[in-house]
Write a structure and sequence with these properties.
Blueprint (H helix, E strand, L loop, with lengths): L2 H19 L4 H14 L5 H4 L6 H18 L2 H9 L6 H16 L4 H19 L7 H12 L7 H21 L14 H22 L16 E7 L21 E8 L2 E4 L12 E6 L1 H7 L5 E3 L15 E7 L15 H5 L1 E7 L19 E6 L2 H6 L5 E6 L11 H16 L5 H14 L5 H7 L2 H19 L2 H12 L4 H18 L2 H19 L4 H12 L9 H5 L8 H26 L3
Antiparallel strand pairs: 1-4, 1-5, 1-7, 2-3, 2-4, 6-8, 6-9, 7-8
Length: 600
């Protein structure tokens, strides 16, 4: 190998070491590595920046906007309720999440599926009081495992199938006949992939408790967080009417509970989980601020104060703000109603926190004291207007607190379903379909422009773009090809050993470069190895499909792994801990089964 190849391998090794053992953000490490390769002359400027225009990277960025549209309309709650239900244990949650994900990913692209489910799983984990770090990696892995089960489940399978067809045509032109099939059927890979998916599912289910981190938000770990008292009304046309507290999902709220119900002037204290909700029930909740934000997003619950509907700003353009009342505020000593809060501040108080005490009065009747924390619904400009006001000690906006556009939830889900359908049917590319879907979300106001900009995770996109550049360096310098050639030669003349070697090299290559690039790189080696050994190329093609798709031990090896990196709060070592043994499991099962189904 040339010095450029050795240098590129050294840089990639340094990247993996820093990702595994340092706290530096992945995008910083990867961009730094690309800068080193650029300075060394191995990568030209256009090659170093090529990842920024890569179709896969742009697609992920656009899908963030599609996901924001579903999230801002409250569609994620429908997805979670329909697919996941309400499990009582972490293992049950894994089963309820992974099985539907695996089934869906067998027939649709993994990237939009994971983009769609990430916000749903985040909300669902919070409702079930399960650390989201216990679910995000399994979400990605389930999509990967399910995607291998059919020809259309992942683009890698289609890439290898296309190369088989191309090789068959070449042999027909040269020899007048070919031993290769003119393309694989939809379920030809299924007899290998389904046992692998089952093995992977069982491995994750049995080891997730110890292998995955338990990282909860700092608020969830506090023993005595500040509590808010908030009133919500059951809308007359709500789907919650007639349901019990438990059926409505209001019993096991994370960090909040129903303290009492006011019904037709009668107070119902110590509310039973079997109490059935009626139209216009006034529910008194007590809970931490994150839970109050979640309550605003439940379809069928509206703030009990009618002042909310008198604000001049449209509700989907508002947010929630915490404001601590100062001792010089004109509100002190007056009730919220008498203080004419809405008229003075163009905002509405929806909850009050007071030194951990439970404030049992209706919002308008609460007499404000200095030091009270008010949870306010207002236009975002309230923060700037009151930040330096003498009326409040502190004013801060709560992220992700914009009330959902529930009336557009069906529309947002329909847009996403159409996107998935046209991609699965092969009518449009993933990039084209996702861009049209994102545009539709904005045009129909399922997602606001500001919401779309906030939804894009630039850290993830920069990491993806930089990883493409690193892959280009390894391919350009011949490093991957040289390593692959050497390992395959070590297999000698034994087809089984050659199959083991092909899988191992493809697996490693996929962790370093993209899955499609690894498959395209390894297919010629598989073809040459089969011809040299005088055996069928089909077992080797199947092994490449599996090895290039089943990527678990690195966040940069597969797009969905990187997409869940931030939401799950993971470190690089988290993937290594559970991913390496899972990779080895897939390696063993695939190599053991493939020759039994596809004979040498």
């Amino acid at each position: 190998m040339s010095w450029e190849a050795w240098f590129s391998i050294g840089v990639v090794a340094m990247v993996f070491a820093m990702l595994a053992f340092s706290r530096v953000a992945p995008d910083i490490i990867l961009i730094g590595a690309v800068a080193i390769l650029l300075l060394s002359g191995i990568l030209a400027p256009d090659e170093a920046l090529s990842g920024l225009s890569n179709e896969g990277m742009v697609t992920v960025g656009v899908l963030f906007i599609v996901g924001a549209g579903v999230r801002e309309t409250g569609g994620v709650q429908w997805i979670a309720q329909i697919l996941f239900g309400r499990p009582k244990t972490a293992n049950t949650a894994l089963v309820r999440m992974m099985l539907p994900t695996m089934g869906l990913s067998a027939f649709m692209n993994n990237t939009p599926l994971v983009a769609m489910l990430i916000p749903a799983v985040e909300d669902w984990a919070k409702q079930c009081r399960i650390a989201v770090s216990k679910l995000m990696i399994p979400l990605s892995y389930a999509a990967i495992l399910g995607g291998t089960c059919t020809l259309i489940g992942t683009s890698t399978n289609l890439v290898v199938n296309g190369m088989l067809i191309k090789q068959a045509k070449i042999e027909i032109e040269q020899q007048g006949a070919t031993k290769l099939p003119m393309g694989m059927g939809l379920f030809d890979i299924t007899p290998i992939a389904v046992p692998c998916a089952i093995a992977g599912f069982l491995f994750i289910l049995l080891t997730a408790r110890w292998m995955l981190p338990d990282r909860r938000s700092s608020m969830a770990q506090l023993d005595d967080p500040r509590e808010y008292t908030v009133e919500m009304l059951v809308a007359a046309d709500s789907s919650l009417v007639g349901k019990t507290i438990e059926q409505a999902g209001l019993r096991h709220l994370p960090g909040a509970f129903v303290a009492e119900i006011e019904r037709d002037g009668t107070i119902l204290p110590a509310v039973s989980p079997q109490e059935r909700l009626r139209a216009n029930d006034r529910l008194l909740f007590v809970g931490i601020v994150e839970s109050v934000v979640d309550l605003q997003k439940i379809r069928g619950l509206v703030p009990a104060t009618n002042q909310v509907f008198k604000l001049s700003t449209a509700r989907p353009n508002r947010c929630l703000v915490e404001a601590v009342v100062s001792n010089t505020s004109p509100l002190v000593g007056r009730s919220i109603r008498d203080g004419r809060f809405r008229s003075v501040y163009n905002a509405v108080v929806i909850a009050v926190s007071r030194n951990g005490e439970r404030v049992r009065q209706k919002i308008g009747d609460i007499v404000v004291r200095a030091g009270d924390t008010l949870l306010v619904e207002s236009h975002p400009s309230f923060v700037e207007q009151q930040r330096n006001s003498r009326d409040f000690f502190l004013v801060s906006r709560l992220q992700g607190s914009t009330p959902p556009r529930h009336d557009r939830a069906v529309l947002a889900l329909a847009i996403m379903l159409v996107m998935v359908t046209v991609v699965t049917a092969g009518l449009l590319t993933m990039l084209t379909a996702s861009m049209l879907a994102a545009g539709a979300m904005l045009v129909t106001r399922c997602c606001t422009g500001s919401g779309a900009r906030r939804a894009v995770d630039w850290q993830v996109l920069m990491a993806i773009a930089a990883s493409f550049a690193l892959g280009d360096a390894l391919q350009k310098t011949g490093a991957v090809a040289a390593i692959a050639d050497t390992i395959i030669e070590l297999a000698g003349g034994n087809p089984w050993l050659a199959l083991v070697a092909i899988y191992g090299v493809t697996m490693v290559a996929t962790e370093l470069i993209t899955n499609n690039a690894a498959a395209a790189l390894m297919f010629p080696f598989a073809l040459a190895t089969a011809e040299k050994l005088g055996v069928s190329v089909m077992p080797f093609a199947i092994v490449i499909m599996m090895a290039a798709s089943a990527v678990f031990s690195s966040p940069i090896g597969y797009q969905t792994n990187l997409m869940v990196f931030g939401p799950g709060g993971y470190r690089f070592s988290d993937y290594m801990r559970i991913g390496v043994p899972l990779n080895l499991t897939m390696w063993f099962v695939t190599v053991a089964l493939t020759p039994l189904v596809w004979k040498f």
